[in-house]
């Protein structure tokens, strides 16, 4: 193992700071042991290039297997989706046909109901027209009767008036003759 610092320079530095040579060597020796222990721990967790290449090849092999599985799965899923899509399309066509039939039925029912209502309205209008015509006839008859009765009363009044006038004239002439 190589150390990346100068142990002798560290011993000299410690001696300058007041340590004895023996104390400085013990401290540097302890530091070297600690660094070696730490490096051993680090090296245990590290892999070599060969191990890394082997692991990379294993991962690539695993990825290739997963890729093949995905392609197979995609093809099977695609065919399943295609069959499901076909099934849904057929169901949709059936529903569309049912809706079209239902719309046609409702349209026919509405047309029939509308025609029935039209005929009822026409019949009602015809009944109203007949009733109105009858009422007009009755009114015309009553008016004609009233006119006839009015003319009759008018003639009667004229007769009575003429009779009264002639009676008054006769009486006046009678008085006139009597006085003359």
UniProtKB/TrEMBL annotation:
Keywords linked to the UniProt accession: Coiled coil, Membrane, Mitochondrion, Transmembrane, Transmembrane helix
Any single GO BP term: positive regulation of mitochondrial calcium ion concentration
Domain of life: Eukaryota
Subcellular location: Mitochondrion membrane
Organism for this UniProt entry: Prunella himalayana
Keyword set includes Transmembrane: yes
Record family assignment: Belongs to the CCDC90 family.
Transmembrane domains' residue ranges: 160-179
Protein's name in the database: MCUR1 regulator
Signal peptide: none
InterPro entries, A to Z: CCDC90-like (IPR024461)
GO cellular component: mitochondrial inner membrane
Pfam families referenced in this protein's UniProt entry, alphabetically: CCDC90-like
Claim: Membrane is one of the keywords in the record: yes
